[in-house]
Amino acid sequence: MTLDLDTDGPVPLITVRGEVDMSTAHLISELAEHTIARRPARLVLDLSRVTFFSAHGISALLRTRRAAAGADVGLILRDAAPCVTYLLMVTGTRRNFRVATTRVDDPVPVGKRRTGEHSPV
Is residue 20 helix, strand or coil? Predict the structure, then answer.
């Protein structure tokens, strides 16, 4: 798994690529918590390039959500890969997150992706 943090724009963006499992999931919440400590208005996690997502990934997202809520930072999951959306749905944790596709201010329900639209946050 690799993580990229982009702080060039007004909204920090963490892009997650690869496999999120028991040996890597904690890195997501650690980087997110570091970013949340800077108190941005929002934090976006781009999960479009995740190729495997375990229950440890769900735990990392829930830890991140708690940290964001505690700091009054909006958390948005953007373009979650099918393996992520599946696990969010079957675990019942989907309702805990704002999930957006293509644009942060235009959330679309999971499974209702619009094809051909790809604009950066």
Answer: strand
Ranges of residues in the chain with a pLDDT under 50 are 103-121
Q: Give the number of other Cβ atoms within 10 Å of residue 51's Cβ.
A: 11
Every domain of the chain and the residues it spans: 12-100
For residues 95 and 76, is the Cβ–Cβ distance under 8 A?
no
Q: CB under 8 Å to 66, separation ≥6 — which residues?
A: none
Q: Using CA atoms, how far apart are residues 104 and 20, in angstroms rounded to an integer?
A: 23
Q: Which CATH code fits 12-100?
A: 3.30.750.24
Helix ranges, the chain (H): 25-36, 55-70, 82-91
User: Rounded distance, CA 17 to CA 108, Å?
Assistant: 22
Listing DSSP states for 84-116 in one string gives HHHHHHHHT-GGGSEEESS-TTS---TT-PPTT
Tokens of residue 31, six digits: 């980087």
Strand 74-78 versus strand 42-53 pairing type: parallel
pTM above 0.85, yes or no: no
